Fold this sequence. Notes:
The complex is a heterodimer.
Chain A: H1 23-37, E1 45-49, H2 57-60, E2 64-67, H3 73-83, E3 88-94, H4 95-101, H5 103-112, E4 117-122, H6 157-163, E5 168-173, H7 177-189, E6 194-199, H8 211-217, E7 218-220, H9 231-238, E8 244-251, H10 258-262, H11 280-284
Chain B: E1 5-12, H1 17-30, E2 34-40, E3 49-57, E4 68-73, H2 76-82, E5 86-94, E6 111-114, H3 117-124, H4 130-141, H5 146-157, H6 162-182, E7 199-202, H7 203-213, E8 216-221, H8 228-234, E9 244-247, H9 251-263, E10 267-272, H10 274-289, E11 294-300, H11 317-322, E12 331-333, H12 338-355, E13 358-364, H13 365-368, E14 371-374, E15 431-433, H14 447-467, E16 473-476, E17 482-487, H15 491-503, E18 509-513, E19 515-517, H16 523-528, E20 531-535, H17 542-551, H18 568-584
Parallel strand pairs in B: 1-4, 4-5, 5-6, 8-9, 8-10, 10-11, 11-13, 12-13, 17-18, 17-20
Antiparallel strand pairs in B: 1-3, 2-3, 7-14, 12-19, 16-18
Amino acid sequence: MSSDIRFTDFKSDKQPTWCPGCGDFGTMNGMMKALAETGNDPDNTFVVAGIGCSGKIGTYMHSYALHGVHGRALPVGTGVKMARPDIEVMVAGGDGDGYSIGAGHFVHAVRRNVDMSYVVMDNRIYGLTKGQASPTSREDFETSTTPEGPKQPPVNPHALALASGATFIAQSFSSDALRHQEIVRAAVEHDGFGFVNVYSPCVTFNDVDTYDYFRDSLVDVAETDHDPNDREDAKDVILDSEKEYQGILYQDAESVPYHERHGVDENMSDIPDGAPADATDLVREFY
Amino acid sequence: MAADFNWAVGGEAGDGINSTGKIFAQALSRSGRHVFTSKDFASRIRGGYTAYKVRTSVDTVRSVVDRLDVLIALTPRTIEENLPELHEGSVIIYDGERTTMQDVEVPEGMFGVDVPLKRLAEEAGGAIMRNVVALGAACEVAEFPIENLDSALEKRFGDKGQKLVDNNKEAARAGRSYVAEEYDHAFDYSLETTDADYVLLNADEAIGMGAIAAGCRFYAGYPITPATDVMTYLTGRLERYGGHVVQAEDELSAINMALGAARGGARAMTATSGPGIDLMTETFGLVATSETPLVICNVMRSGPSTGMPTKQEQGDLNHMLYGGHGEVPRFVLSPTTIDECFWKTIEAFNFAEKYQLPVYLTADLSLAVTERTFPPETFDMDAVEIDRGFVVAGDDVDDHLTESGGFKPHEVTDDGISPRAFPGTVGGAHMSTGLEHDEQGRRTEDMGMRVEQVDKRNRKVDTAREREDWAPREFGDSDADTLVITWGSNEGALVEALDILADEGVEVRVLSVPYVFPRSDLSEDVAAAENVLVVECNATGQFADLVEHDVLERVDRVNKYDGVRFKSDELVAEIRATLDGVVEA
């Protein structure tokens, strides 16, 4: 790790194809800055992304990366981190990738508390397939596949995380650049699974959850008497359906990451040229 | 071949049938006898008929037979289920004091040995040892030295304290003495012992041990019959070598975790059976097109869907060869015996890394639930070779960069094999993706690059065909007019069948195929034979289709895969060119 890493080192030479004004630009910038600020460089960073507009992020960033199948980014990140505890792992996805097709993995990744960060670009819409309801779309949000709205409540990702035993739950807003960067940085630095839901507006298909909407409605918990280490406080803001919050909603100060619980601390890419020295003991077990 | 002896213990699931059978199998193995075990079981925890069967001889045994010499029957159903295998002179050991066994009638011509198993066990320290009393009784019936059983009991109960071991030894002796005192009968059996040392293991264990020997460090899986034993074996053992086993939330996750670990540079593996293979197929194409080395072990069972989960079938061949949308190369290895499962696992890891692709390692239920004895040197760890393929680090990275400094993990090369850089390698940062990509792994829809990458991936198969030995294993008479081809686990039964046929004057040549793809070209062998039979455990003959495919040379292929449809003028040119070729020839 060198100290002169700048966030632009994490930029690839591919120009994003996101729509002009897409929240994902700001989300990605914050991620790159957070990685650079925490002393990482592209050669020791692994970014995993799924499918959707959010999934393209691995292409626009420069690092070791895998752009996987829809909804399975978290298991991939889990595998990378277990095999390579020395590598910084950041997983990125969208609300569809993370809370619909990948919802099962989300719950278990949270439970495992692997030491990596998970940034979800939540625009409450399916953008890449041109405007269908997502799991975080509002109950009355009209789309081509839900002409009268989904008529079912949106997933509350923070509540899902809290119920699954999360040790770090945060919310940021792509347009509040400094605060977003600060929150992602805290997720990277967290000892365990650092989960950040980012409001990352879709300017093309969502005319309800807009920049103006979030700007006007977001309350930063850092400006209230919220104690992020207090699970009860976290529960209150997470289950408050009247308001939108940003900031670190919950952080378990005692978090023990997966690798410490399981003693997984070796670089698994490093193996001998032949069978392990005492491998014959394995044969003897079958006597 | 020396006479073999066939023994079984049967009862209800939950009666301790497996551990009882295993103790006897181990006792035989420790006495220097060869052992081949099999299980009859159902997919339930308690209740239902289950049996553990042991075939033993001083010579090698490779399969099961329809014959039972001594049966320990804990339930009346055990006798009913095994009637076809019992014969004149077979001995049935049972506890006539057990309520359900009071009215049991020993079939005519067979010999009933009624031993108060529970009562004797209680006298020795606990009713739970009644099966061990039965094992002692079996030792007497089979004239098998009980000291061998002691040794197996020590292995089984040693870590639970000497007292338990001693109680069990006493229980066994009680059973033996009871038979000796109560039955003044000359049984037909006398099990000879030898000085040989054998190890006793099943295919799942052989695969797990092979994985550790091969340097596998990461395993993710989801429990499923009959592949679970691979995970059970690795759990706790892989950790000794700095690795880790994860029980994933489902097979979708398992293969993705393994993929992640492999991208991290670890030798990674997952194992499952049919239903899990279906789920993993979602990610299979990504593994293959991102050129990630991964070993996917498929311990086949009877399908489709939930099928018959505890029954044998080789029905997944087509799925492994063709499963997944689109086209991308993968290797399919099909070890034919338990010891080959060990060696082919090591080979699977080497192939995966040398050719940077997913390798299906295929076993099946009949291999997985069978334990067989081998001389320990069969698993010679000093002979294990590890080849990690084309991995670059340090200054070598510079030889594989674009002009602007981007690393080329999908560099188009003559042999199709590109450089690999593990995370942490300076200058090696790159993208891997399921999208079609350029040499750097960046998305592309460029028609030329698409074709170059498809060809490059397929070229790896040609390279492997040239560089590796794909020969089948041959048995029998190489000049015989009759050729029998098989793949996977049928080899043992077929090899024994050969001996029987030879005794009857029928000469047969057998080719047992451990590599399904790539595979050796059998067309000359097929042409040279008068009769060709393909033996496999499925209804449609999936491997037979492949043999016929290889023999057939009838069509010219016109292919297009640059992402654009055929155009009429293009087809005119293609058809004309083919016709011209025919005319010229």
